[in-house]
Design a protein that fits this description.
The N and C termini lie far apart (42 Å). The chain is of the alpha+beta class and 61 residues long. A two-stranded antiparallel ribbon has the order 1-2. A hairpin with a 2-residue loop joins strand 1 and strand 2. Helices cover 30% and strands 25% of the residues. The model has no long low-confidence stretch (mean pLDDT 80).
């Protein structure tokens, strides 16, 4: 890991950024190399019922 990736505040910044994006209706996708060649991919996709431009409606009201 680089020095920036080992920074103790990095997870806090990533969490705050992800929370802000999710609250605004955006999606979050992060990826990490655990041990080459293993790669962990994390994704959270929001469903914004107020966005009428989607082809499919959100499953929950």
């Amino acid at each position: 890991m680089s020095g920036a990736q080992r920074d103790a505040l990095r997870p806090v910044a990533l969490g705050a950024s992800a929370e802000a994006r999710l609250r605004s209706g955006g999606d979050v996708s992060l990826g990490y190399y655990l041990e080459r060649p293993t790669f962990l991919s994390l994704a959270l996709v929001t469903c914004s019922p107020k966005d009428g431009s989607r082809a499919l409606p959100c499953p929950t009201p």
